[in-house]
Amino acid sequence: MAATTLAARAGSRSRDVLDVVRRPLISPKYGPVLITALLLVAMFVLGGLRYTGFASAQVVLNLLVDNAYLIVLAVGMTFVILTGGIDLSVGAVVALSTMIAAAMLAGGWSPTVVVPLILILTSFLGLLVGLMIHVFGVQPFIATLAAMFLARGLCYVISNRSISIEDPFFVAMAQTPVPLPGDLTISPSAILALVVVLIAFFVLHRTRFGRTVYALGGSESSALLMGLPVARTKVLVYVVSGFCSGLSGLLFSFYTLSGYSLTAIGTELDAIAAVVIGGTLLTGGFGFVWGSVLGVLVLGTIQTTITFEGTLSSWWTKIFIGGLLLVFIILQRLLTARRQ
Amino acid sequence: MIKIISHRLFWPVVLLLVLFVVNLVAFPGFFRIEVKDGHLFGSLIDILRNGAPTLIVAIGMTLVIATRGIDLSVGAVGAIAGALACSIILDSPDPGSVTTVVTAVLVSLLVAVVLGLWNGALVSVIGIQPIVATLILMTAGRGVAMLITEGQILTVNSPPFKVIGSGFLLGIPVAVVVAAVIFLAAALLTRQTALGMLIESTGVNPEASRQAGVRARELLFAVYVFCALCAGIAGLILTANQTAADANNTGLFIELDAILAVVIGGTSLTGGRYSLLGTLVGALVIQTLITTVYTVGIPPITTMVFKAAVVVAVCLLQSPATGAAIRRWRLRHLARADRQAVA
Amino acid sequence: GVDSAPGGSGGGGDAKIVLGFAQVGAESGWRTANTKSVQDAAKDAGIDLKFSDAQQKQENQIKAIRSYIQQKVDVIAFSPVVESGWDTVLKEAKTANIPVVLTDRAVDSADDSLYVTFLGSDFVAEGKKAGDWVVKEFADASTVKIAQLEGTTGSAPAIDRAEGFADVIKADPKFTIVASQTGDFTRAGGKQVTEALLKSNPDINLIYAHNDDMGLGAIEAIEAAGKVPGQDIKLVTVDAVKDGMTALSEGKINFIVECSPLLGPQLMDVVKKVKAGESVEKRILTEETTFTPEQAKEALPSRQY
Amino acid sequence: MDDVSPVVEMTGISIAFPPVQALEGVDFRLYPGEVCSLMGENGAGKSTLIKALTGVYPIDAGRIMVAGREVAFTGPGQAQEAGISTVYQEVNLLPNLTVAENIMLGREPRGWAGIDARAMRRHARDLLRGLNLDIDPGSLLGSHSLAVQQLVSIARAIDIQAKVLVLDEPTSSLDADEVEELFRVIRTLKESGVAILFVSHFLDQVYEISDRLTVLRNGRLVGDYRTDELLRIELVHKMIGKEMAVLEQIERRTQTADTDDGQKPYVQAVGLGRKGSIEPIDLTVYEGEVVGLAGLLGSGRTELGRILSGVDRSDTGTLTVHGRTRRFRSPRSALKQRIAYSSENRRAEGIVGDLTIRDNIVLALQSDRGWLRRIPRRRQDELAASYIEALNIRPANPDALVRNLSGGNQQKVLLARWLATAPRLLILDEPTRGIDIGAKAEIQKLVADLADNGMSVLFISAELEEVLRLSHRVVVLRDRRKVADLDNDDLSVSDLLAVIADGAAPEEVTA
Ligand SMILES: Nc1ncnc2c1ncn2[C@@H]1O[C@H](COP(=O)(O)OP(=O)(O)OP(=O)(O)O)[C@@H](O)[C@H]1O
Ligand SMILES: Nc1ncnc2c1ncn2[C@@H]1O[C@H](COP(=O)(O)OP(=O)(O)OP(=O)(O)O)[C@@H](O)[C@H]1O
Ligand SMILES: [Mg+2]
Ligand SMILES: [Mg+2]
């Protein structure tokens, strides 16, 4: 009997070769991510045709190097958005982490203290935000907006000047390229970011916490009635985002080797845009971390394209970014809308 | 008594009063309103006038939020309107004439409407999530505004235009009058007709509303157009107030202030029931907060922390959990009083 | 994935110098004038300019510089968003043998071999110039109450201009800064702050604004309060953009310290010298001056921005 | 049985949602190995009692003992851990996750690399087969009909293997077959000593499955009876608190006028279909006629209703309304032709929870009139008041938020919305789902009266008795195809079942 079913299945497979390609593209779950990936590739091909030196492997790697911090940020944001929440504080928390790192290192603290401390602090801030949202029913937008004000304010309180980082560990993290075959290099931060993505993927898909995150996005009240740990998950999600912001802040301080209170303004919007471009629904419940990584790469590619273009004035730069974003989102939307 | 405490707007109003008191302590003349050169003059008037643009944007935002949407592009739309008006006035042979100014204002508001249609189309026809749809215009719109001014600050010397931002009508600042008119218009338009109910219903349950025959698509268009129009008007007021178009800074972050005002006013970001009155209180809270920073002389480096504290305070006080705690406390209190009465 | 198109690699065939310029953004009229000056001067000097706008973000600037390195430009120039944090990318540039010129704002790198020269104004000196004028102007007064309109909190010009000013006036205790608030370098900010200040401190004698725009906003607020700007309350500002100069010539502002955005021609000279292998000074100051109302009247007709 | 100690013992439970006192001093007991039905009208407090037990609502007064220990759960999670597994009244699952995930969420099998998705799917498949449901456990829950979702939520509850199984109207959208299947499972569980709390408005089901009945009325306990000692008529009396004459079946309608000569067709569909949801179908509904739609789960009844009302667009065939060919692009255009559709999925597609009863009732009428011509407040109040009275909606406060209404009352509000538009064709998809016996009779009477006054009705219900009682004609669907069109003269349930099951060719039956 097993044999017959198997045979039947094989038969249907050969019949529907086309279907196998099409099915995932039109599924509400995988469609948006796949289409983002395809469009990204298309963008690269177009860029490569237009600009010399664009379609090189190092440019791709540089996308990872330059956006490592944003990838980590987007990962944290993905958790939050999957539950249907939003976190506006991430940009300010990145700035705060760079400030704390720079100030403490300048004060002679060792990185072995500074790094964990920052991660604990930002996770704690996330915890506070999560509690505010869960216990007091404050809307995520507002709770995280308050956290954004707070983090940014604390930056100024620490110092309103930029502070350089000269600590050897940080310098090493910033300036030690990791060689790859073929004369290519990548930074430790980029590797770290990819590790974070892998862990996030595992957590979201292979742990009960991760599944509960999706459940919350589907319907919070249903998740509650199903007996899932809604409170814990909802708070934890903001802790995860806080942690990721802290880590992202560290990566950012590796990247810039300095702390500055005005840094990363508006980065939360980049992170949100990346997550959404990656196919995650803002209302929660659908989406993948890999999608968010793709989203970051899309934003990065737009940036790269503009630099390679090299002739755009400030305003055309903005219009161009908006335009590319529009084209991308509309294409994505139209391609996924064909399902139903 | 319980009714008052549990009213949605109780805590925002209390907070507003607290801020007033703080100001009064820092500066005893805070409540003084004099008549100077035939118009009202005083801190409260400043709060009203400076808060007018935020309020106007927040009114539009309230309706957008009621449909479960959000409009991040208001600042950019305002900047475009301002830039356009200034460049039209500058290019005209007679910048000081009323007709020039009226033309400029009408054209720029028309453009604002078009931008609203654009947002509406992205959201309702193409079905892009509002936050992303408006993010596009937020980014590109600033660019367009700068394109119009070529990145310069366009200073106009046109008395009729200046009136919009800092003129007076019967002693009351024109900006305040405009805000009041928009507020009343929005309130009447949505509450005296069925528009408000239909908007709320689309916000709460779009599919159910569709099945009930609500024209959700047209409604979304209308709401985004209205919001863009509000943004355009606010942009003109801001621009006229400084008699110059500053494409970079006009209305920068006004979307955050507006959203904050809406939420402080008790409208939920998940759509549905909205309160324009709440938005009014919210906008006043925010502007008073800003003014407080200036009058009390809070050092710039702690301003943000102060803002955070206030926002957290109002949110926590407004929260249902706090309400429940207060109710419990009152019950216990009453019970004790009863016991004492019996004894 | 086959490298089938070998032609047209970076660098270009002719001797035209390629300059990669990473601008901060276009956050103010001053910055736009700066950009325009660089673009125009490049065209005049026959230099191929690769321009990028970092939208006020350091990370974008780093990306742009990295991309210039990849595109193998001849010289990289940039106005750093922040002082610190440039070592990594500057080292990459150095390794790639591309000389770097800083404009407008400095970097705090300990290793000054990472850049060829820094071309720009000295913000502390600007603050000092403003302070000097104030000390002279109020030599006879017994007490002077000053309000300061700060630039964007945390930005280098705001910090340095405040510092230079404070350095000068602290010598005499009759000067007190009774209020200091940020107006974010904008007119609207300047106006709103001044409105509130005038209510709580109606008796201030002088307003020191970190740029013209905030000063222009302050003028509006002072007029609305029924006072005469430039007389009842004196005004000192920094920048000397056209609108500021106009107000100065009308006597509404009393003194302006120039901070010129027109670095373009100087920059192109430096670029050419660097490319030719000539040595340049490590620090090149922009040619700047100060203006009184009379000087403003003279200079105004020829003012470009 | 008396010597067995109760596994659940609730005493003096009170819960208030000011101003509504949902429960007042209610005692309730549940013994191992029995099925106890909780009975009461809509809004009597059944669901609230269940939610009190599982910790969804905190209780204002009273005591809850589970297995001899006093408990105070703060949420369903804790209740689950203490051995109480619950199917709540509305389907409370996650449409964005797969069927398997919905069943196993929180109890996923874990291997060395975290959750083992394959084991999970396998387990889910077996479990669903046990309920005679053969669907892909890897498919998204949201892609299934409400009935399937309800079965999935039952599967989830059963899989928890609890001491106490609580089922709040689990059968409201199930067919007779599925109900039988469920009862089989319930009996097995009962045998193994599980205590089962069952809620349903179907008296037949209640009498078939339960050993004991606990009756609530207006949040108060009326009494606790053994099923075999209480006559139905007495039960109804206890639930409603007064004699109920209507209950004696509204007399069966048979065809009064001959459709062929006397009446005009109101809606005529020829080859109407939609790819992937329903095969081209011919259907005529005459003015003043009630047409019942019968069929198994997933047979396409809902889809047909949605296409006829413009909720979904058809892609083949033509639709003639009142003699003119129409293409509906949206429910709005159907409403313009006075065709209204009341969805079976009232929570997702029906009620607007955060609005008041009044707003919900006038919504369709108002959107039909356009936003400018607001229905005057006085007229709104009249409308609301009249429907609240006619359908006995509780609380009878037009300003109450619909979200807070009991399930049955929400359904009534929804009905009121469509009735208020005075439709010419009313498509009712499971309109009596979750409605108590008294109200059901009221609604049936209402439908009959409206049809007598010329309104056409397309009546979709899983309850065949109801279909037969009301309709002049019954159309049977199977596998998204029309298989029979039967005049309802003395059709019996078993006749109908026969057609549904093996689908004698339509010609044979109608002939
Ligand atoms: N969250 C809530 N807020 C306010 N009122 C509520 C809430 N939940 C229930 N009620 C009210 O409590 C009463 C009892 O409702 P409940 O849901 O228990 O009824 P029920 O017996 O289950 O009815 P049905 O048969 O219709 O499901 C109703 O009047 C309802 O309006
Ligand atoms: N027993 C089942 N097994 C697999 N799929 C089913 C089953 N029952 C329903 N479905 C799915 O549910 C979908 C919806 O069917 P539809 O809503 O038309 O059902 P219906 O005739 O209205 O019956 P009901 O309202 O009782 O669900 C169908 O597309 C079908 O794929
Ligand atoms: Mg119920
Ligand atoms: Mg159905």
UniProtKB/TrEMBL annotation, chain A:
| Highest taxon of the lineage | Bacteria
Renumbered to this chain, the signal peptide range is none
Does this UniProt record's set of keywords contain Lyase?
A: no
Task: Tell me yes or no: is Transmembrane helix among this UniProt entry's keywords.
Answer: yes
Report the InterPro entries cross-referenced here.
ABC_transp_permease
Q: Which Pfam family is an annotated match for this chain, by its short name?
A: BPD_transp_2
Q: How does it sit in the membrane?
A: Multi-pass membrane protein
Q: Which UniProt keywords apply?
A: Cell membrane, Membrane, Transmembrane, Transmembrane helix
Indicate the principal place this protein occupies in or around the cell. membrane
- Location(s) in or outside the cell: Cell membrane
Q: Where are the transmembrane segments?
A: 30-49, 61-82, 88-106, 113-135, 141-159, 180-204, 235-257, 269-302, 314-335
Protein known as: Sugar ABC transporter permease YjfF
TrEMBL record, chain B:
In which broad location class does this protein mainly occur, judging by the first location in its UniProt entry?
membrane
Specify whether Methyltransferase is a keyword of the entry.
no
Q: Where is this gene product found?
A: Cell membrane
Q: Does the keyword Chaperone apply?
A: no
Q: How does it sit in the membrane?
A: Multi-pass membrane protein
Lineage, uppermost ranks: Bacteria, Bacillati, Actinomycetota, Actinomycetes, Propionibacteriales
Task: Locate the transmembrane regions by residue number.
Answer: 9-27, 47-65, 72-90, 96-118, 130-148, 168-189, 219-240, 252-269, 276-298, 304-326
List the Pfam families.
Answer: BPD_transp_2
The record's annotation in InterPro entries points to: ABC_transp_permease
**Could you tell me the keywords of this UniProt record?**
Cell membrane, Membrane, Transmembrane, Transmembrane helix
- Which residues, by range, are in coiled-coil regions? none
User: Which named protein is this?
Assistant: ABC transporter permease
Going by the entry's taxonomy, the superkingdom of the source organism is recorded as Bacteria
TrEMBL record, chain D:
Keywords linked to the UniProt accession: ATP-binding, Nucleotide-binding, Repeat, Transport
Any idea where the ABC transporter domain is? 8-243, 257-504
**What superkingdom does the record give?**
Bacteria
Q: Name one Pfam family in it.
A: ABC_tran
A GO term for molecular function: ATP binding
Q: Does the keyword Nucleotide-binding apply?
A: yes
Q: Which Gene3D superfamilies match?
A: P-loop containing nucleotide triphosphate hydrolases
Q: Does the keyword Flavoprotein apply?
A: no
Q: PANTHER family recorded for this chain?
A: CARBOHYDRATE TRANSPORT ATP-BINDING PROTEIN MG119-RELATED, GALACTOFURANOSE TRANSPORTER ATP-BINDING PROTEIN YTFR
What is the recorded name of this protein? Sugar ABC transporter ATP-binding protein
